[in-house]
Amino acid sequence: MTTQRSSPRTFSEVDEGDAAPAASTATAAPAPERAVGDVILIGDEGRWYTRADASAHPQATKKLLGDAAAATAKLGDRHVGDFAAEGTDVLRAYVSADGSVVATAYRGLGSWTFLGRLAGGALVVASDAFTQEVENVKLFGLSLSKGTPADLHASVLERRPALAKSHGAPVVLESSRRSAAHAWDTYGLKSRVGRRR
User: Fold this and answer.
1) Which residue ranges make up each domain of the chain?
2) Tell me: the pLDDT tens digits for 62-85?
3) Residue 197 burial by CB count (10 A; 0-12/13-18/19+): exposed, middle or buried?
């Protein structure tokens, strides 16, 4: 099977069925030569993100998929699509009803990270995986090793108001796969622990 590389789209462009984009100054960048598949985003340091199908992951059981759908539905989050970062692990992405929180399920939907951006460039993170807080790049992270999606979502919402006093109001994101991939890319850049999945 041959995979064709598509031309990359900027962060502000919209997938079919997505909400209209917010204004953006992002410009299109050429797809890296190694990028294969339907490229949806070239990140700030050249990381590339493509469309993917998290349900095809070997560890994504019917139960995990159902549990993820039920948990996010209770939170009012919308599944906006799945994406792969540089051809590695596939992430299933959700955006909250108000557009201020991105949830990503990965490792076959067995691990969760919730992200909330603030206008001053800060990122509030709650994850059930290791998360390093790096204040000098405005990454405010919390690890909850046995945290459920509801716990992680609540943690972002609880921590955000105090941080917003110094770092600006929550950023409302467009409800799209590309927007979720951009939030994940920002997390990777700020975490300084290597390329994110």
Assistant:
1) 52-191
2) 998 999 999 999 999 999 999 998
3) middle
